[in-house]
Amino acid sequence: MIHHHFSGKSLDTLKKEYRRIIASHRCSVTEEDYSRLESRLPWIHELARIENRAVSLYDLNRRTFILKVDSHIDLLGFNAKDVDINDIGKYHAMIHVDDLPFMYDSEIQMYHFLRGIPGNGKKDYKLVYDFRVRNRDGGYIRFLHQLCPFELDTRGNSWILLIISDVLSSYPENGEPLRFIMNTGTRKVHLFHRDMKIASDLLTRREKEVLDLVSQGYSSDDIAGRLCVSVHTVNNHRQNILVKTNTRNLVQAITFARLIGLL
Questions:
Q1: CATH of domain 205-260
Q2: Sheet with 158-167, edge to edge strand ranges
Q3: 78: exposed, middle or buried (Cβ count in 10 Å: 0-12, 13-18, 19+)
Q4: Distance, CA of 177 to CA of 165 (rounded, Å)
């Protein structure tokens, strides 16, 4: 199990800090900036529709969503009339109470992490985290969220946030969530990796090779022969992959790795 720590802060304290950050964040943008952004929205909407992924763009300047392609509303048992896309508080109220401190703390730490990254470098990082969301019937569905700066203002501050959300099927309902900040170019993990008891890579080069071969249908014996290692070594890699991705089987691990761009 993966254990997370929130510096002893209560849920109320984390909520207040989260709201303070959102309310105090300032962006230096013009109407011309919004016009340029507007021209990019149709292809983002179409890409989300084709890939059947929930994609949102959140405007930190106006504190509102400017795009929300949510293919998961039906899955949760709601329809568009039930959900106000700009009511973040209502959405947060649907998140499992045990996962709320995790969610707030992760986004707060992402905010502080990005403040230390200069200029366009901010766009190289994404927060990957999962949590459970209550559906209309009172059950919970686990979602994987990926959050990253999509546009910066003229001063290099985060302006538009991109949020991609995918359903994690067949995950244990009471399993602990996972989180990390990854550089999308190097695939290095820069925050929370100590929580996960890993080095700077979510998966080592060899673990990625093993997972890629598993995804192609190779058995442990086949993989051992191709990599010139023992079957015992291959099985150790397989077990490490499950631990690091917080998954129960390699089908889930493959899906997870593909969603975050590791495969």
A1: 1.10.10.10
A2: 64-69, 54-59, 158-167, 140-152, 125-134, 179-183, 189-191
A3: middle
A4: 15
Domain map of the chain by residue range? Answer: 11-191, 205-260
Residue 212: name the closest of 229, 227, 190 by CA.
227
pTM: 0.89
Under a CB-based contact definition with an 8 Å cutoff, are residues 147 and 162 in contact?
yes
| Segment holding 208, helix H or strand E | helix 205-215
Tokens of 160: 């538009």
Note the helical H segments in 39-126.
41-51, 88-92, 100-115
Q: How far does Cα 52 stand from its chain's mean position? A: 16
- Mark residue 211 as left, alpha or beta (left: phi above 0; alpha: psi -120 to 50; beta: remaining): alpha
Q: How many Å apart are CA 241 and CA 220, to the nearest integer?
A: 14
For 149-193, how does the pLDDT look when each residue is reduced to its tens digit (9 = 90+)?
999 999 999 999 999 999 887 666 667 788 999 999 999 998 887
Measured distance CA(42)–CA(70) in Å, rounded: 15
Task: For residue 250, count CB atoms less than 10 angstroms from its CB and return exposed for 0-12, middle for 13-18, buried for 19 or more.
Answer: middle
For residue 125, give the nearest of 67, 184, 81 by alpha carbon.
Answer: 184
Q: Considering only CA atoms, which of 112, 109, 91 is closest in space to residue 100?
A: 91
Question: What is the token pair recorded at 10?
Answer: 């209560």
Place of tokens 């230390």: 116
Which fold would CATH assign to domain 11-191?
Answer: Beta-Lactamase (3.30.450)
